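Q: What structure does this chain adopt?
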Amino acid sequence: MPNAYPAVTLKTPTAADLPFYFNYRSNPAIAAAEGRIPDQTTAQAQKHLHMIIAGNGSANYSWFIVPAGTETPVGTIAIWGFSADRTTAELAYGLLPKFQHHGYMHAALAQVTAFAFSRLQLTRLDCYTAASNTPSLNLLTSSGFTHRETITEDNLAGEPTTMVIYAQDRPL
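A:
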C-alpha cells in the first residue's frame, strides 16, 4: 500500500529559525498541549532554541518539519531523554494548529522512528502524551506504538496532568 502521507523534510534547527520557533513556542494551543506556559518574548524562544541547537546530536536530536515544496517549518520533532546506556529515549513532537490533521506528523514520525532504530540503534522509543490528546494517541497507535502505562504528574505549568506512555520496540 503506498504512503498516503505528504512528503516532509526534517530540517536541523538553526538560529535563523527564530521567527518560526517563537511562533511555535508562543502559540497557546501548543503550550497547553506541552503543559507549559507560552513564551512571551523572542528572548525566551531564543534561549530554548539555543539549548536544542547546542545539544543536537548529543543530548538530543531535534528537527523542524518542513512540507515538501516549501522552506517554512510547520512543526518540531525530537528524540531526547536518553537512558544512561543510550538504549532508550523519549520522543517529543508538535505542529502549529493550522497544519495539524494533514499527515505531516505521521510522515515525520515514520522518518524519526526509522532513524532511532537504525542509526541510533535504540531498543525502545517512548512517548509521553496527555491522556486527553486523542489526535496524538491516534497518531501513536497508527504508527505502531502501544500503550504501556498511565501516570499522573505535574506538567511544566505545575498542574497535575494524566499522561499516557506509549512505546515502540525496535523491530527484530
